[in-house]
Amino acid sequence: MKIKRLLKWSLGAILLVLLGWLFVAYWMSTNDCNQNAANPNNPMKAIVNCEYGVENLQLREIEKPTPADNEVLVRVRAASINPADGHLIRGVWLMRPMLGMRKPKNTRFGTDFAGIVEAVGKNVADFKAGDEVFGAAKGAVADYIRVKADRGIVSKPSNITFEQAGSVAIAGLTALQGLRDKGHIQTGQKVLINGASGGVGTFAVQIAKAFSAEVTAVCSTRNIELVQSLGADHVIDYTKEDFTKGDQHYDMIYDLVGNHSFSERRQILTPNGICVLAGMGGAGLHPESWRRLIANFSAAFRSNFTPQKFVTYIAKLTKDDLDVLRDLMEAGKVSPVIDRTYKLDQTQAAVRYLEEGHAHGKVVIVME
Ligand SMILES: NC(=O)c1ccc[n+]([C@@H]2O[C@H](COP(=O)([O-])OP(=O)(O)OC[C@H]3O[C@@H](n4cnc5c(N)ncnc54)[C@H](OP(=O)(O)O)[C@@H]3O)[C@@H](O)[C@H]2O)c1
Q1: Are residues 183 and 299 in the same domain?
Q2: Which residues are registered as beta bridge partners of 113?
Q3: pLDDT of 257-315, one tens digit each?
Q4: CA 82 to centroid of ligand 1, rounded, Å
Q5: Domain span at 38
Q6: Do both 197 and 307 map to the same domain?
Q7: Residue 256: how many CB atoms within 10 A of its CB?
Q8: Could you give the CA distance from residue 241 to residue 246 in angstroms, rounded to a whole number?
Q9: By the number of CB atoms within 10 A of the CB, which of 16, 238, 299, 320 ranks highest?
Q10: Which atom from ligand 1 is nearest to the alpha carbon of 220?
Q11: Is any ligand 1 atom within 6 A of the Cβ of residue 257?
Q12: 253 CA distance to ligand 1 centroid (A)?
């Protein structure tokens, strides 16, 4: 009886401390926006989000950065938007202990960029002023960004535009790592790509073809020509046909949508096939998003007990893989697809468009 009461009181005390901590963390949560509001000495334009919410994305003048010894300063020519950007600026509650409870800790927006090297730190030997580059770094939607020379930056192939190069990093790495590292793609394999017309899907179709796979792309009627032009061998129009009801079997399903059950997808996988669970459908939070996310984790767990494997993953930024993408583009095997471009002061509109969930290719912000 005593132990029960003790446990009850301890639990209550822990809950109270936790609530107190959450309350304090919430009200203490702040960011650098007030400091940045002062007149910058050497101004540049950047998109910042001082508060959570797409409506709070603002174009501001802030201090132009100076590269550290191991960094490259890039004048950004184009930057693209990814589904994760929307989740970050909205501050999904589950992520707020990391992102900042009341206000976002990181107030700079965007990750993918392409541009021209303006200056380099004294320890940087691989780049020089004037080099055309692309990659990923925090705060890409701005006139200038600093990038660690050994991490998120590689040279831009001359056969693609800045708009295209600025759209590559996250979507290209996601497609490459999902197909190669998680799906173990092999020559001649039958690969089905669900969500083939979006930012990641348009890279996935081309990369799977570069690995000499036989690709079936799943998209809606209006995107059939697009995915065919990217090299898809077969197309399934999801508005007319359910791909899990056909008699074809696939070595890999690369699934960017997650709108079919574990058993439906197992039925069309070969006996040792792999389903790579890359996403939950088009960008934005839709009524189905949370259910699909949970179903993805559940499928990955259940596949521990089946010969067919379901794997989730988060793409990683690596210079080696940016190099692989650069080489694929240089060889003409991958050509980034741009759906729409927006100007810097139209960033809110760009995010809203992407979050409708029906972009075909990438949405890019172009700097003047
Ligand atoms: N794992 C990772 O590290 C990682 C990284 C990046 C992205 N992701 C996730 O991957 C997913 C796709 O990202 P994205 O950048 O490609 O998004 P996106 O560009 O917004 O994708 C839009 C595309 O999804 C298609 N789509 C929507 N519903 C569909 C359905 N039921 N069947 C087939 N296609 C459908 C749309 O085609 P229609 O217009 O024809 O409907 C549209 O072309 C997102 O859930 C994102 O969060 C994961």
Answers
A1: yes
A2: 79, 135
A3: 999 999 999 999 999 999 999 999 999 988 899 999 999 999 999 999 999 999 999 99
A4: 10
A5: 34-168+336-366
A6: yes
A7: 26
A8: 9
A9: 299
A10: 40
A11: yes
A12: 14
Verify that 116 and 137 share a domain, yes or no.
yes
Residues 308 and 190 in one domain: yes
Atom of ligand 1 nearest to the CA of 84: 47
User: Quick check: helix, strand or coil at residue 232?
Assistant: coil
CA-nearest residue for atom 38, ligand 1, is 358
Same domain, 179 and 105: no
234 pLDDT band, cuts 50/70/90, is very high
Whichever domain contains 149, its CATH number is 3.90.180.10
CB 355 within 8 A of CB 284: yes
Same domain, yes or no, for 219 and 244? yes
CB of 208 shorter than 6 A to ligand 1: no
Nearest-5° Cα angle at 245, 242 to 251: 100
Residue of 358, 360, 362, 363 to mutate, ligand 1, most atoms within 8 A of C-beta: 358
CA of 22 to the centre of ligand 1 (A): 34
> Strand 269-277 to strand 309-312: parallel, antiparallel, or no bridges (unpaired)?
parallel
In a domain, 331, yes or no: no
State pLDDT tens for residues 41-68: 999 999 999 999 999 999 999 999 999 9
Q: Give the residue, out of 206, 255, 256, with the most ligand 1 atoms within 8 A of its beta carbon, to mutate for a pocket test.
A: 256
